[in-house]
Amino acid sequence: MSSSPMVPERERILELHADHALQGLETGQQAELDRLLEVHADLNDDSLELAAAALDFAFVQQSASEEMPDSLRQRLRSVPLPTSKPDDSGTERDAPASAASASASGAPVVLSGWGKLGWLAAAAAVLWMASTQWLVSNPSDREQFDQLVASSSDLMKADWQGTDDPAGSQVQGELVWSNDQQRGFMLFQGLERNDPSKDQYQLWIFDRSQEHPVDGGVFDSTGGEILIPIDAKILVKEPFQFAVTVERPGGVVVSKRERIVSLAVPETPGP
Amino acid sequence: MESWKPPALLDAPRRGEGCAESESGPLSKLLSNGYRRGENDRKGAPAVRSGGIHFTVPDPLLPLVTSGDPAAMQQCIDRYGGLVWSMARRWANDAADAEDAVQEVFISLWQHAERFDPKVASESTFVTMIARRRLIDRRRRLSRRREVELPEGDHVEPTEEVDLSLAPDAEVAEKALTELRPEQQKVLRLSIYHGLTHSEIATHTGIPLGTVKTHARRGLIRIREALQTDSRPTEKGVRS
């Protein structure tokens, strides 16, 4: 979104910095901030974010706390460490802005924007996360997800809603889809782990231009956070709902819809 | 780090006196190892004075992390794990979600460790900033609008005496908060501590959205000004 043209640019930057510090920015807002900072580079700082952080720290100190679980501490300590000094190349222009961009785009930043610690730290972190089944998508999925979110003017988004089916009762996450690019991704957390030898999840895209739901692809879940590319088998023109069912391994041509585990109804993209 | 103890701490009520005697308070949990009063975990750590009590502030670890010091990363986890965990628990729906969030925060911290500048902010504030970023990002990414649990009152009630020795920025910020207009304080508490969006704050309080944004922005600017005018003699608050 853009502010009124009557708002001076420097004032607008301040507004956006404050919004970023307190609640994050939407993709359009981040793009606007990046554009404005190209002109007003002297205002490119984290000072409001640091102010919010200092206050947050004070609040944390005043509130009741609980011990971090030992198991988590051990997991954190098991992260493979970088074994060489970082090089000086590839330093991000502004790590905070980078993270903010990712935030605004709705994309995880774990696999992008590595700073001076370099690829060793990145690789170590990725291996570690993969080993804990925290990430099951591959880096190219993440990169494509970033790219899709950043480049699509017609991006549809929707929250996943669970159902009474035990496999989907705890599900959270979102779906993004671009009609123009005929691409999309599903981000899930809490979708019950499946045994691929027994059953698999299958996405169905309900398209007003089609008589039957479109097969969006078969996938598996680890039970943690997963990012799945949508694999629409035919052209999707007017999607209005997405549904995930449990089907036999390999999926089916027509679902009996015996087990619907999650639904998503996208918002209509803005003009 | 130099003895950059802000004057505000010396002028503040002697809340630190009681808390400093407590090794089992919340900060001891938050900053669970090597960050307690008197623990000289790194040679050369300067002592700062608060309300007549001497604190030992350990040297920052992030520069060592940047240089690839494995021990520093472990110490960082020990030092800030409790802080990050407390923040994550506040933002996450449940413990499992919080654990994932904590992992994301530390990954991000390793990524951005080289951007820490002790002349700009204390290490604890920098870590808190990175944690907030990740937690905000995570919530937006997952489109997770957890059920908003609003406080009974506007205040975050202390549950135990706390040790502020390691958080001079927080001390300054907290003092500056008390000097804001009540509605600005309210908005900032709801936003920063309770994680409410501006829209949620407007809904909860009945304050028009535009006014919420104004209160938040002006209040935050006042906090920033207080931080930038504390006694540290360096170019605070400005990123290169």
Supply database-style keywords.
heterodimer, A: Immunoglobulin-like, 3 domains, five-stranded antiparallel β-sheet, four-stranded antiparallel β-sheet, B: mainly alpha, Rna Polymerase Sigma Factor, Chain: A, two-stranded antiparallel ribbon, 55% helix, 3% strand, globular, disordered C terminus
Task: Annotate the secondary structure layout.
The complex is a heterodimer of chains A (271) and B (240).
Chain A: H1 9-23, H2 27-39, H3 47-62, H4 70-77, H5 95-105, H6 118-131, H7 139-151, E1 156-159, E2 161-162, E3 172-178, E4 183-189, E5 200-207, E6 214-219, E7 225-229, E8 239-247, E9 260-264
Antiparallel strand pairs in A: 1-3, 2-9, 3-4, 4-7, 5-6, 5-8, 8-9
Helix pairs in contact in A: 1-2, 1-3, 2-5
Chain B: H1 7-11, H2 15-21, H3 26-30, E1 47-50, E2 53-56, H4 62-66, H5 70-91, H6 95-112, H7 123-141, H8 168-178, H9 182-193, H10 198-205, H11 209-228
How does this model look, in words?
The complex is a heterodimer of chains A (271) and B (240). Chain A has 7 helices and 9 strands. With 271 residues, chain A is an alpha+beta fold. Chain A has a 5-stranded antiparallel sheet with strand order 2-9-8-5-6, with no helix packed on it. A 4-stranded antiparallel sheet of chain A has the order 1-3-4-7, with helices on one face. In chain A, a hairpin with a 4-residue loop joins strand 3 and strand 4. The radius of gyration of chain A is 21 Å and the shape is globular. The N and C termini of chain A lie close together (12 Å). With 240 residues, chain B is mostly helical. Chain B has one domain: Rna Polymerase Sigma Factor, Chain: A (Orthogonal Bundle). Chain B has a two-stranded antiparallel sheet with strand order 1-2. In chain B, a hairpin with a 2-residue loop joins strand 1 and strand 2. In chain B, helix 5 crosses helix 7 and helix 10 packs across helix 11. The two termini of chain B are 20 Å apart. In chain B, 54% of the residues are buried. The N terminus and C terminus of chain B are likely disordered.
